[in-house]
Amino acid sequence: MMPAIGNAVDSVRRTVSTVTTRVVEVATTLLAGLALAGWSLFWSRVGRMHYAQGDLVSAAFTTAVFVLPAIGAVLWYVARS
């Protein structure tokens, strides 16, 4: 009877471990997505501010250097998944 209890305990441990791993993976992905979204929104607003003031060079630079790489990272991650 003891081996059956041991097998049941091992099964529960494996299930808990699998669920915990999956929850951590999902939380990490969500956190990274939120960070990239926040980064993109912040820098796109900075670019819009430059554009509204008539500074087209700074607006283009801000968009090219800070916003497009973040969008590219999201697209790369989605394509990889």
TrEMBL record:
Species, as recorded: Halorubrum halodurans
Keyword annotations: Membrane, Transmembrane, Transmembrane helix
Listed transmembrane segments: 26-44, 56-79
Name this protein carries in UniProt: Uncharacterized protein
